[in-house]
Write a structure and sequence with these properties.
It comes from Vicugna pacos. This protein is α+β, with helices and mostly antiparallel strands. Helices cover 27% and strands 18% of the residues.
Length: 284
């Protein structure tokens, strides 16, 4: 866990506890060329979100937060209130690339990738162009042309829906393998009445997996995917449902704080099954 660090004025620095895969330990020790927090677009909302980028591989990780009430961390000789637990998990970068490809498709023409993945609000999107096997990834969602040994790309909705269907099927398989009950969650999300509750069935798995994938794609594409999967409209909801789904305390939410300010600081590690990042500033 992160160690306690005093600021120059004697005040206890705020610290954060992160869980990341252990294999990133070597990357963290090479801060400037290793792990870096970056602010990139959220491909679902179009707003900014914090990601962790491994410059060594390179590899992209999304950052999520678990928040529980009345929870604190004991860090060395100090107590860190708030009890937030941050964790980074590998993310398919194609979801972010897809966001820019869909946006560029409004021009209706083939374009070089470096002219597609451009964003004045999130200039670090250029890091996506350094990812390995980039051309192989793009084949899942684009049409491709080569002119004078330079490649040009155009978004393909047909290819994208086939690729997303595979993602849904992979998610369904993972849910079943891990014996995760989805019926109650699907029915709770849709606010079904009590007599509509049933045991897990294939449609529930597909609908739940579709919901998970929809967190990474624009709503218009999510709706198109639902039709592509031939998901029936959910039964009528119970009267007066809440205006939006309420996230439970044990569900991960998107990290809001801007951790890019820690990119110039040391990342210290503790040897565990997972290891954590010390984000406290150095003592003056």
């Amino acid at each position: 866990m992160a160690g306690g660090v005093d600021g120059g004025d004697g005040a206890r620095a705020r610290q954060h506890v992160f869980l990341v895969p252990e294999y990133l330990k070597d990357a963290a020790e090479k801060m400037k060329t290793g792990l870096m927090f970056v602010k990139l677009v959220n491909p679902c909302s179009g707003e900014g979100a914090i990601y962790l980028f491994n410059m060594c591989l390179p590899q992209l990780f999304e950052v999520k937060v678990f928040k529980e009430k009345n929870h604190s961390w004991f860090i060395n000789e100090s107590v860190q209130s708030g009890g937030l637990l941050h964790f980074a998990t590998p993310m398919d970068p194609l979801f972010l690339l897809l966001y820019y490809l869909i946006k560029a498709d409004k021009e209706g023409k083939f374009q070089p990738l470096d002219q597609v993945v451009m964003d004045d609000m999130f200039p670090n999107c250029a890091l996506l162009l350094k990812l390995p096997e980039l051309e192989k990834l793009l084949r899942h969602v684009t049409e491709e042309k080569e002119i004078d040994k330079k490649k040009y790309y155009k978004y393909s909705k047909e290819k994208t829906l086939k690729w997303l269907e595979k993602k849904v099927n992979q998610t369904v398989a993972a849910l079943k393998t891990n014996n995760i009950n989805v019926s109650a969650r699907v029915q709770s999300t849709a606010f079904f009445s009590g007599d509509q509750v049933s045991s897990d069935k294939e449609e529930d798995y597909i609908r739940y997996a579709h919901g998970l994938i929809s967190d990474y794609i624009p709503k218009e594409l999510s709706d198109a995917l639902s039709k592509y999967l031939k998901l029936p409209e959910p039964p009528a909801a119970v009267p007066n449902p809440p205006s939006k789904k309420v996230k439970l305390s044990d569900e991960p939410v998107e990290a809001k704080e801007d951790y890019t300010k820690f990119n110039t600081k040391d990342l210290k590690t503790v040897k565990r099954r997972y290891w954590s990042l010390n984000l406290g500033p150095r003592a003056c």
